[in-house]
Amino acid sequence: MTANDDYIIEILKDVGLIKPEQIEAAKAAAGGRHQSILDVLVEQGIISKLEVLKTVAMQLGMDVIVLADHEIPQEVIQQVPAAIARRYKVVPVFDSENTLSVALSDPLNIETLDSLRYLLKRNVDGVVAADEEISEALDKYYGRAEKSIEELLQNPNQSADAQVRMDDMADETVATDVDAPIIKLVSLIIMEAQRSRASDIHVEPLETRFRIRYRIDGVLREMEPPPSVCRPRSSAASSSWRA
Hints:
By secondary structure, the chain is an alpha+beta fold. The protein has helices spanning 5-14, 20-33, 37-43, 49-60, 74-77, 82-88, 110-120, 131-142, 149-153, 160-173, 179-195, and strands at 91-95, 99-104, 123-128, 200-205, 210-216, 219-223, 239-242.
């Protein structure tokens, strides 16, 4: 389900949706099948995914929606580029003057909302929807992502979608718990550079922060730093590369 299964299980137990003996039985079953306890509880029919989502969302003050019940206007979909929507597996659903609401499947994933606020340069909040519904909505509103890595590499003018596909491959093959924050930081920097049409990216690790500058129309411009997904280790080095 999510990386916060233990916390979710405690919530479900506290509200009386699952019992301690059910948790212990699921724990024993999960150990032999390399599954999470929460997945076993859902598989055994003790609790449904929808009940899990509703319970956790309620604890966090978030709404749960059924995406199939909403026909999302194109002007709302356009608020989140396809590359970003697929990378973070979110679907924009409501757009008010001050806030964009996006559907995501993990209500505890606060980092996704922070990243979206940085990339979209506006306030973003979350509503909760089932993972399968989000996948279907992404295909419905953004089209199916069926390009192979080979096809993307053959196109020198690939869009941010290409970077997203390559990021996903990296996540699945070589990323470790140590690598993940660095991969996320680089991905955010590159996507923002592409959005800003920058020709160069200059990164300087200072003592307490990264200074990031993009060359836009021939001028180096310092940008707002991305969310704190990792800390610089040294201020002795700087680097730059072309976007």
